[in-house]
Amino acid sequence: MEAKRTEPLVPGFTTLARIGEGGQAQVYLAERDYDGLRVALKVLDSRMRQDKVFLERFVREYKLLSKLEIEHVARIYDQGFAGEHPYIAMEFLPSGTLAARIHEGLAPRAALRVTAQVARALDAIHTRGIIHRDLKPANILFRADGRPVIVDFGLAKDLAMDSTLTGQQRLLATPRYMSPEQCMGKPVDARSDIYSLGCILWEMLTRERIYATAGPADLMRMHVTAPIPKLPQALAAHQPLLDRMLAKEPADRFKSAADLVGSITL
């Protein structure tokens, strides 16, 4: 059934339906008026325009995405203000999130395949000097052909630029998937994203979130000090891979996402 059309939020686009929302932004399915291209419109709450931290994150996300013309990152088409609402128009990804696929259940081989694909995407991002810093299942979406795409670069770090938001960003990231160095407010590099991907691999294999019973404050402590969790015996063959991805010290992890890809056997 065709989605019911609503009044446009952004000039030049006709909104069709709300497809997602968070504390500071809503995402709409929309059509670009001049050619009918379907896009995802990410619209920041008007109150956030007065918040310099959130507004700078939003503007930086556009700048980073506009530089990353690679297959593993959502394409971006436009950015601006619609009245008091900052917005980004980006590629509409129709095949859902990794979070939904984990909920439905993934076979171990499928989990490893997704891990390898996301690691290739991370390698492409890292080689351009960008660290994502908020990798999680909800930020990995799929194109119609099944390829995973990384989205939501609002907390990303461009290593070529200084940022005044580092302390704020540590608190805004998702504790479930934060690396130990993030939890301690230390500098991060590509190996931090590898740790986050290790948390996601654990979740794909077990259908449980890592350190599942801990609240946000305890989670951050456990990422720093708790032993790496052990997989069930039926999945024990994948423990060495997880152990390197989830090593507490960055030096003990894979040195790059490319090295991680090379260690995954499908």
Notes on the structure:
This protein has 266 residues and is an alpha+beta fold. The chain folds into two domains: 13-91, Phosphorylase Kinase, domain 1, CATH 3.30.200; 98-263, Transferase(Phosphotransferase), domain 1 (Orthogonal Bundle), CATH 1.10.510.10. The protein is 35% helix and 18% strand. It has nine helices and nine strands. It has helices spanning 52-67, 98-104, 108-126, 166-172, 180-183, 190-206, 216-225, 239-245, 257-263; strands at residues 13-21, 25-32, 38-44, 76-82, 85-91, 130-131, 140-142, 148-150, 157-158. The strands form three sheets. Strands 1-2-3-5-4 form a five-stranded antiparallel beta sheet, covered by helices on one side. A hairpin with a 3-residue loop joins strand 1 (13-21) and strand 2. The longest helix is centred in the middle third of the chain and has 19 residues, at 108-126. The chain is globular and about 55 Å long.
